[in-house]
Design goal:
The protein is built from 6 helices and 15 strands.
Length: 212
């Protein structure tokens, strides 16, 4: 590093390979300290976990150990392309919000056209699949169409009292008002939606209702 008068040159990395599990903290703790000076991040981990699901939901890169050379090469190529873009998308901000599993009412960050939409998990009634998009139906009848699959929402919300009752529907157990018996049956949600239950999901749903 060279100094000229009061000016100094500080080098900032463009690409960061970051392990999720560090010695006494996590890679996410480190990211929070970087502020706006974050480089392009490629996560590395030895385990498929909730963290990996949140990384995937946030459209960030990750490599599973042992690292495959071709996957490493592809990740580097993608990272170098991303460093040429001056405006950084808010993917890391989305991840840090979605990885926060603190006790209390969770807020998730959703990618929308002009940035991120913060939504309280308890406000979500139904997630409805539409190919590679998912429509979120909220308690106040507001809707969001998000460019993520229903499987990605299931990964992110599955431990938050959400149940996949059909190929096309993920519902909040807290918003079920009535279950109507049948071959699979159907549920009436707090926003008035009627959702069919597949036969293979019937037992899982009834067990979940018994735990209410």
């Amino acid at each position: 590093m060279s100094h000229q008068g009061s000016n100094s040159y500080v080098a900032h990395p463009q690409v960061l390979f970051l392990d999720i599990e560090l010695k006494d903290k996590t890679g996410f703790d480190l990211l929070r300290t970087l502020g706006e000076q974050r480089p392009h991040v490629i996560f590395t981990t030895a385990h498929e976990s909730y963290a990996v699901k949140a990384i995937r939901f946030s459209a960030l890169d990750y490599l599973l150990k042992p690292i495959d050379p071709q996957e490493l090469s592809d990740a580097i190529a993608k990272a170098m392309e991303a460093t040429r873009v001056t405006e950084k998308p808010p993917m890391v901000d989305m991840l840090l919000k979605n990885i926060d599993r603190s006790i209390g009412e969770r807020v998730i960050a959703l990618p929308v056209s002009d940035g991120l939409e913060l939504v309280h998990v308890n406000e979500i009634v139904v997630c409805e699949s539409d190919s590679n998009y998912t429509t979120l139906h909220l308690r106040d009848d507001k809707r969001f169409v998000i460019s993520r699959t229903l499987k990605e929402f299931e990964d992110l919300l599955g431990e938050q009292d959400f149940i996949r009752v059909h190929n096309s529907h993920l519902i909040s157990r807290k918003h079920i008002k009535k279950y109507i018996k049948g071959e699979g049956g159907e549920v009436i949600m707090s926003n008035g939606m009627n959702i069919a239950v597949s036969r293979r999901k019937k037992q899982e749903l009834t067990e979940a209702l018994e735990r209410l």
